[in-house]
Amino acid sequence: MAGQLPNWENIVEKLNSYVDDVRKEFEQMLGEIVEVPTISMDPSYKGEIEKGADLAVEFLKKFGFEAKKCQTPGNPVVLGSYITDPKNPTVAIYNHLDVQPAGGPEWVREPFKFTIEDGKYYGRGTTDDKGPALTALFAARFAVENGIPINIKFIWEFEEENGSPNFEYFIKNYKSDLKVNSVLVSDTLWISPQKPSIPYGLRGLQGARLVLETGTKDVHSGTTGGAARNPIGELCQLISQLYDAKTGKVKIPGFYKDVKKLTDAELKNFLASGFDVKRWIQVYGFKSIRTKNKAEILRRIWAEPTFEVHGIVGGYTGPGIKTIVPPRAEAKISMRLVPDQKPDKVFKLLKDYVKKLNPDVQVIKENSLEPYYGEFTGPYAEAAVKALEFGFGLKPAFIREGGSIGAVVTMKKHLKVPIVFIGLSLPEHGYHEPNENFDWRQASGGMKTFVKYFYDISQIK
Which residue ranges traverse the bilayer (predicted)? Predict the structure, then answer.
């Protein structure tokens, strides 16, 4: 019958046994999905994306869910559903199963060969976001099999790492399948192994390429140097006019105009989050940073926009020096945005300013993601706090997060329901880094956390 809640003490006893019993099954399934290289930004991996989506459907069906592969103009989205009773509330759980590219000398293990060492799971996608996705699936199976009165849907995207260009198409075309009361997202980082976080804000993103062509071929720097324009040098000069690389301050006129002011209460929460500057420096391997002031770091990484240069391409890059003036150069840049900045407006500001500074530079628009700002109070936020305290015995902090998840903004726009973040990844897990990993401690605690969350939100009216 809808709404009947089983005794929590009985649930806990069964849950502890369940988590112990499913470890091997969890590891086997995680290994299967990790060894499918679902790299979304490289079109040559389209076959692997389809293979990964088929495997995801198989996993859901194996756990008793209805499941289908929803086609879009790009990569598919896998949708799973388990209806315990139409009268029960419904939660949608969002994860992504596509991954970043991987490889190179810094990887000490094959990135797409699943490896278990001392309770750690190595491989691209283990923490971002295949491990958390499967953790939620194992928790969902337990919940529905043990009478928790909640309906559960899974939304597994395969284009998140590529900016979610077709997620809105999916939402619009499958809206009849997405009648839910709330959304749970598990694709975020803790502050440290001893401090979970519940983000309520995400930065957006506007990417661009700056391209300058001043010739048709490499030319001799002795016979042409001094008169020939050097596109690499000019792009470096342009970049220095767009932002101050030493301070991070963006110089584009109007760039900061729409930035939502950080409140005193938010900053107080940030400072009480348990963030440790020395540990943060160590985890990310920095030799030096722009400031060591804790409040200033937290403002910069969670609540302020940025301008970053990801790469400059052009000229000779082999051993030694080749004395040429190159004909072309390209800079790959992006700007992380915060509420209430709009990607289109920021891109226009960039393009107009570049045209003023160097009209020969092409400004080519890349991926756009809007920033997200949600609530950190109310019954769903309270349920998330209680869930993490139960699953890990740790009190979480409410923070904003520096990364971007395009699908979240789309779900907020179209589904119009509360969205809560319960991430399981740690800074040590290596999001987007070589030697990415996940671990059983986070998976087992995560299963308990999600079950507690489902139990509590099943009673929210």
Answer: none
Q: Which fold has domain 204-259+304-367?
A: Alpha-Beta Plaits (3.30.70)
CB within 8 A of 217, min separation 6: which ones?
327
Mean pLDDT in residue range 89-96? 98
Mean pLDDT of the residues in the chain: 96
Residue 263 token pair: 């409140």
User: What pTM value is reported for the model?
Assistant: 0.89
Return the structure tokens found at 360. 């020969």
- Nearest CA to 332 out of 362, 354, 310, 363 is that of 310
Return the SS3 of 113. coil
Range list of β-strands (E), 225-315: 308-314
Identify the three-state secondary structure at position 12: helix
Burial of 13: CB neighbours in 10 Å, binned 0-12, 13-18, 19+: exposed
Residue 205 clears pLDDT 80, i.e. is over it: yes
Q: Are 400 and 260 in contact (CB under 8 A)?
A: no
pLDDT value at residue 1:
42
Residue 161 DSSP one-character state: G
287 in helix, strand or coil? coil
Run of H or E including 446: helix 440-457
- Whether residue 267 contacts residue 400, with contact meaning beta carbons closer than 8 Å, is answered with no
Residues 412 and 185: their CA atoms lie apart, in Å, by: 12
Tokens 């009268």 belong to 87
Regarding the domain delimited by 8-202+371-457, which CATH topology (the fold level of the hierarchy) does it fall under?
Answer: Aminopeptidase (3.40.630)
Could you tell me if 146 and 82 are in contact, meaning their C-beta atoms sit under 8 angstroms apart?
A: no
Phi/psi zone of residue 65: left (φ > 0), alpha (ψ -120 to 50 degrees), beta?
A: beta
Sequence ranges of the domains in the chain: 8-202+371-457, 204-259+304-367
